[in-house]
Amino acid sequence: ETFEILQAVTQRIAVVWPIHPRTRAMIGTHRFTERFAGLSNLTMIDPLGYIDFMKLVKESRVVLTDSGGIQEETTILGVPCLTLRENTERPEAIACGVARLVGHSGERLSEMLEEANREDSWMRQVKQVTNPFGSGDSAQRIADAIECALNLPLDAKQEKVAVNELTS
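The chain above was modelled as a monomer; its predicted structure follows.
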């Protein structure tokens, strides 16, 4: 069923699939290699490093994943995400509207991909979402707290931030 879905989807949109070596080997073991090779809009690539993968995600119209971490990344980057699971440990991504649960139904995935491909309102909404996973400044806050704990000199702004963090 997955192959049939990919076949239908790749007739309408280009799909880039960073594929793990074990998954690629399984495709070969089950003799799907030739079938996948016949999908002209499917590009299977080796796994990417983090920065390159984030660039690919940022440039994507929609991301399909079963990874909780990637659901977070799509939310932070403002990229729609179809989550290939029945539930998620990242309900914030669903609640803010970036991710949608697809489940395991090939028919539902096909419908949701078609919807994502034509629904510009979802694309616009996702770009406007405030990151529900934090402010993105945790490294600076940690460094400030460490400096404060070690009694290192802080400038006035850092001192105020560190004191506020330690007292809240």
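The beta strands are 15-18, 42-45, 63-65, 81-83, 99-101.
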